[in-house]
Amino acid sequence: MFWLVTCAALACPNLVGFSAAARGAVVTARPGAQAVETTYRAEQLRRFVEAASQRRVDVTGIGDSNQLSGGDYGHDHGFQKAWSDQFGMYATGVLPVSPAGSFGVSGVHYNAGHAFSSDQNHPALPAAYKQLGLGSPEAGVAGSGGFVPAGGSATNDAAVYVRSVAPFYDPMSTLAWHSTFHRFPDASGDITPQVRGAGPAYGPNALKTYPTITIPAGSGRVDVVQAIQPSVWAKGAGDWKLSLYDYEASKTGQAGGAAHGKLFSNWQRIENVDRTRGVAYSTLLAQGGKGALHAASTLKDIPDASLAEWMRQETKLQKVGQADAMMLVQIEHGGNDRNYSAPSVGDHPAPSNTGAGFRDNVSAIVARLRQVWGDAGYDTRNLFFAVGPYHVQRDPWTKDKLAEFETGVMQLADETYNLAVVRGTRMLSAQAMYAGGYYREEADDAHLSRTGYEAIGRLAVNQLTGALARDRRGWSDVSSIAFDLDQDGSAFAPQDLVLNNLTSGLTVSPEDISVWYDSTLRELKFTFPGLPGNVLPAGNYRAQLAIEDGSAGPYAYEFMASPVSAPEPSGIAMVLAATVAAATARRRHRRYQH
Predict the structure, then answer these.
(1) Cα gap 10→29, rounded to integer Å
(2) What is the pLDDT of residues 100-121, one digit of tens each?
(3) Statement: the pTM of the whole predicted model exceeds 0.85
């Protein structure tokens, strides 16, 4: 690789330096080829990522208040969108039938009304049934079990609302609603599924009422499936909801006008039957104010049978044998852990607010899930873990502590299998986070805006797919552009670099750029976490640094980013490369400008 630098600070006749207020003048500028090591041990996730381009797989999220945040976003939204944009979404995640609040994520919405007349805390529900859920109020997607007592009925809210923008929803495809009911030896129950409009396209009208489904008395569980044919969507895509009773019949006392007890269920999903590959994303733990210590402790407290049933719900739509089911667990902790000095709960206890303690708590999470996964009959070689990226905050001390946690869990990745680390401290700087509007608000950098969650999700998935790419044709190894300044440069933002690929005619989007300033060296550096492999595509470039008001500044230089030597890919690598390329093309209209 070489650079042909036709504009450098001291050697180029058409170079024009400038000094912007509170920005400083450029002394020198140079592209860099040192790898930006954001992802550690990504190779350990290769089988999962490559499988996502060929078949159905599932991703599970474990995190703090950032996992489900703001009512309708959080990492549950950001990562769902990112995985779906890259590989497509074949179904919703594992969702509660009786949610404990009103929220919506990725086009699937819940109201606090509940589809059932009560929940798992009803005194008439036997204790054994209460243990069938995850138990912790912070486990699962803000919800719990739904119960209708014997002789009771429910004409409550819908079980689930779906917006037309939901990634799994396609009016040309057959959908299927799935739920599991636990039977009672002394009584049966029944539901009458009904699809109704819930928005402008279909109004509140009934679109399809299905035959009543009886849950017979007995023991064990019954998996219920209701297919929803494309003919339901006569006007194309629209917002809709699914209820467990016939609303019209409820007004006249006819059959089907209520869900009748005895009924008890915990989980539901909606599947796009026609999609044979892609990802579905579920939240397992969303524990506000907590860290990896609490996640590990909670998982230890959940009964094995309850956790195994949740894993079954997570993987049962993959349409493969149990031995071939695959799941990736994304652990999004590192923000609250610095606040807890209690001993970690793994095999090597240490204060939880140290790198060693964080590593031990993550190890306990991994060990617990592997234990239940294996005991339930799944292959532990098909259970994968990604730790991070957790976002940086503006206080430098918090970044240093997060880096300490990352180092600790990187040591764990060296000692175990199927675990990789995506380092938030290397992916986006606080400077770039603030400039992009990624923090929730000026005074709250502990939480993110919707845009911030989407950015973290997109960049994190790009880190994994880029690090694992076999097809690197068209890549260069230019991983950064650095400017040495003669004054302070802490006010620069990604938008201040205008980077044109003169060969392709494309401009690199600020969404794909991070900015870092070293006050000791007075070095301003731009990196590319949103581009495959964190490097520029090969080509001739013009880089311009903007002036104070954000318009293109007079400082400019040109360089050549030569292509790296890359062998021809084959087999599954071609499928993954084509999938990633297609996803990039779908996003290009909003990420690049001609």
Answers:
(1) 10
(2) 665 566 667 655 457 898 888 8
(3) yes
Q: Tell me how far apart the terminal alpha carbons of the chain are, to the nearest angstrom.
A: 26
Angstrom distance (rounded) from CA 423 to CA 410 = 9
**Contact partners, residue 71, CB within 8 Å, separation at least 6:** 102, 103, 104
Computed on alpha carbons and rounded to an integer, the radius of gyration of the chain in Å comes to 26
Distance CA 159, CA 182 (A): 17
> Which residues in the chain land under pLDDT 70?
1-24, 70-72, 99-107, 109-113, 135-143, 547-554, 566-594
In the sheet that 19-20 helps form, which strands lie side by side, from edge to edge?
Answer: 19-20, 24-32, 480-485, 523-527, 514-518
The amino acid present at 278, given as its one-letter code, is G
SS3 482: strand
Prior bond of 389 cis (ω within 30°): yes
What span, in angstroms and rounded, lies between the C-alpha atoms of 160 and 451? 25
Specify the 3-state DSSP secondary structure of 51.
Answer: helix
Alpha-helix runs per DSSP H in 99-188 = 127-130
Looking at the DSSP bridge assignments, the partners of residue 284 are none
